[in-house]
Amino acid sequence: MDPIRNPYAPGAGRRPPELAGRSAELTAFDIVLERVARGRSERSIVLTGLRGVGKTVLLNALRSAAVRADWGTGKLEARPDQSLRRPLSAALHLAVRELGSADPDSTAYVLGVLRSFAQKTPAGTKLRDRWQPGIDAVAIAGRADSGDIEVDLVELLSDVAGLAADAGRGIAIFIDEMQDLGPDDVSALCAACHELSQNGLPLVVVGAGLPHLPAVLSASKSYSERLFRYARIDRLDREAADQALRAPAQEEDADFTDDALALMYDVTAGYPYFIQAYGKAVWDVAPRTPIAISDVQVASPEAEAELAVGFFGSRYERATPAEREYLRGIALAGSESVSTAAVAEVLGRKPQSLSPARDSLLKKGLIYSSERGQIAFTVPHFGRYLRSQVSEA
Fold it and tell me: For 63, 85, 109, 134, which has the most beta carbons within 10 A of its beta carbon?
């Protein structure tokens, strides 16, 4: 098969050639956009799931839907070492520019509030470290610049949403890796969404994060369970997985046999990233169409080797020796979600002695707490990869 025509595209956040199995989420978001445009109240949205299930891809697809609806949009990726203030300012600046309000005075005022919010820095910050945002407006003193992120964010988003309402449109802010927001930022974001919802203002936040994101939000504000609509993004079912493989192939005048598709589902378990990785490897080794089960068997070791380096290995390399020991303990403990006591037993250690490694892995996003006393990998099939490493050692 011609490698130049290979349609499959494994990559972090890269849209696959066929976005299969996500029509329900896309349709639901279109309804949200239309309801908000008609002045109806709607909850903001939170997408959760393991790594490799396509949360970022879906987040980008939802943003495209908002752009098509003529909304102002902005996107940011949360980082554990960065305050929300600066990246949110950049995202909102873009959203206001996309909005293109016909009232220049109101737009200038909102941009002035945004500049005031953006350049507010903690007391004692040196002049050379102060950020000067590229916002062409005079800062509005006394609005969104108190230094209290919760007060400031409520004021800022209310003004931005008010501008959108006056223009008869909406604003959508997309936040990836939302679980990495700091506690104060999470609290402020929840408070602002609550205020906007109560006032019926047309601004929607769409967040994406790991499975424990709902618990992060709930720990910040008790009402967050009612504030957001949660959508769990999981692996694809067999029909959607077949579509993700077959549709791009048919665009290139190729196809899979039914047996090949069945084996592809077995080896990928329906995870979108794995589908793209195996699809690319299988296409490159197949001599002709239709792609047969023997082609999948030949290509599987190559796909697994690439995943071992780029998908699994890169994450494993980020861990310290103590953290790697803990990761192996989880893998050897067996099931998808294991107790911290079981990990300690496997490693022959006291649970308290393993707490630093566990806490560090939680912060790095390599594991998450599925419930109290339980932990699990954020990466599908990571346990299988680690067990294979142990058996080879």
Answer: 85
